[in-house]
Design a protein that fits this description.
The protein is built from 17 helices and 14 strands. The chain is of the alpha/beta class. It has two domains: 199 residues, Rossmann fold; 132 residues, Rossmann fold. An eight-stranded mixed β-sheet has the order 3-2-1-4-5-6-7-8, sandwiched between helices. β9, α13 and β10 form a beta-alpha-beta unit. The protein is globular.
Length: 433
């Protein structure tokens, strides 16, 4: 395919060469004539492993060239990939000056072009930018989105120093668009990339780069805080974190990366407090570790606020233990929520198949007696009874058949704290979705 690439910086230069190497004809566009001149003599605009060889080879094969003429670029290609910078302002917002400038230029040319054009946003932008660019191009060109042109959000995941390797071997290739034709076109463009293609919503594609990089930053500072604590205790933190990373069932895995309600149980709260105390006792500042519990408490407050917003007095709780498949009630976050609404005078009914009055003993009985002494009036053996006697149902466990119950009892409202439902439903709302 004939592809124009706007912006010949890091991402643009790598894309220019790698797309050409995969059989496409690429035309780079930049306002910097020096960068354009470099490409037009077969040299890259950046220092990066293997890109010099690729640019040289593809220049000699006449599959790449560059220009400062944006009109020529749009007219001679079917796809325009935007790779211009989006630097931060002093206030922390994105400076979208360059990307909007390119959008205006593309719109100007499209006003004179009758052929369908695919526009790809490779630059890192906040959710909503894709739609703003579409409206701007419609205004400038007089053309209609998804009739005369389409837009794809296609974030890049390139690391400096291994950008070519990352280009060909990303974990996933993300394509977000409201145009199936454009998605098909870009899937064909990337067919030689060694990665599955994920077709997602536009906003999901726009936010994923921020999620990725924020988590990478979190990992670095978490490892550093562990390192600081370990050093004070004369422990080699490199060995500790190497051991940590060997656990790919829990530590390095998708297991805990599920948005929803707060954590609880006997282990996480206790051990986190232990590590915080260890840090404090050794006079070590560990701000990330210190704020984990605060964030968890904030999630409980969000759940309470969401429940309060429904203005219902009869509340049913589906799941009382700190997680499904256990009867452990210690530090169960939903117990705190139940305690709060009891204090507000609400009528509560609770169902948990693993927790029953006849089986309560030891630690669980002590916990219930302390936190919810009227459990005998709240706990039911029948989920149907809880639903029938409640106006608002709080789902805290992934119970068998819960989806059909949401559909069946349309007159009831459901708040989901764990993610059991994937369809839009007027009587259903999730805490994070």
């Amino acid at each position: 395919m004939n592809i124009s690439i706007f912006g010949l910086g890091y991402v643009g230069c790598v894309s220019l060469g790698c797309l050409a190497q995969n059989g496409h004809k690429t035309l780079g566009v930049d306002v910097n004539s020096h960068k354009v001149d470099l490409i037009n003599i077969g040299k890259p605009t950046i220092i990066e492993k293997d890109i010099d060889r690729i640019i040289k080879e593809q220049f000699e094969n006449k599959t790449i060239s560059a220009t400062t003429d944006y009109k020529k670029a749009v007219k001679e290609t079917d796809i325009s990939i935007i790779c211009v910078g989006t630097p931060s302002t002093k206030e922390g917002h994105l400076n979208l000056e360059y990307i909007f400038k390119v959008a205006k230029e593309i719109g100007e040319v499209l006003s004179e072009k009758n052929k369908f054009h695919t526009i790809v946003i490779r630059s890192t932008v906040l959710p909503g930018t894709n739609q703003k660019i579409g409206k701007l191009i419609e205004k400038i060109s007089g053309k209609r989105r998804n009739t005369d042109f389409g837009i794809v959000s296609n974030p890049e995941f390139l690391r400096e120093g291994s950008a070519v390797e990352d280009y060909y071997n990303p974990a996933i290739t993300v394509l977000g668009s409201d145009n199936v034709r454009c998605l098909d076109i870009m899937s064909e463009v990337y067919e030689k990339i060694n990665a599955p293609i994920e077709r997602v919503s536009i906003k999901e594609a726009e936010i994923i780069k921020y999620v990725n990089n924020s988590f990478h930053a979190l990992k670095i500072v978490f490892a550093n805080e562990i390192g600081n604590i370990c050093k004070e205790l004369e422990i080699d933190s490199r060995n500790v974190m190497e051991l940590f990373c060997k656990d790919d069932q829990l530590n390095i895995s998708p297991y805990y990366f599920k948005p929803g309600f707060a954590y609880g149980g006997s282990c996480l709260p206790k051990d986190l407090k232990g590590l915080k105390t260890l840090s404090h006792d050794n006079y070590i500042n560990s701000p990330i570790i210190e704020t984990i519990e605060n964030s968890n408490n904030n999630q409980k407050q969000l759940a309470i606020s969401l429940i309060e917003s429904k203005n219902r007095r009869k509340i049913g709780i589906l799941g009382l233990s700190f997680k499904a498949g256990t009867d452990d009630l210690r530090y169960s976050p939903i117990v705190e929520v139940a305690e709060y609404f009891l204090g507000k005078g609400c009528s509560l009914k609770i169902f948990d198949k693993n927790v029953s009055l006849s089986k309560l003993s030891g630690t669980n009985k002590d916990y219930i007696d302390k936190h919810i002494p009227h459990l005998s009036e709240l706990l039911s053996e029948s989920i149907e009874e809880v639903i029938m006697n409640s106006e608002l149902l709080i789902i805290t466990h992934k119970l068998d058949g819960i989806e059909s119950l949401i559909d069946e009892f349309k007159e009831k409202e459901f708040i989901d704290l764990v993610g059991v439902y994937n369809r839009d439903q007027f009587n259903y709302e999730g805490i994070c979705w």
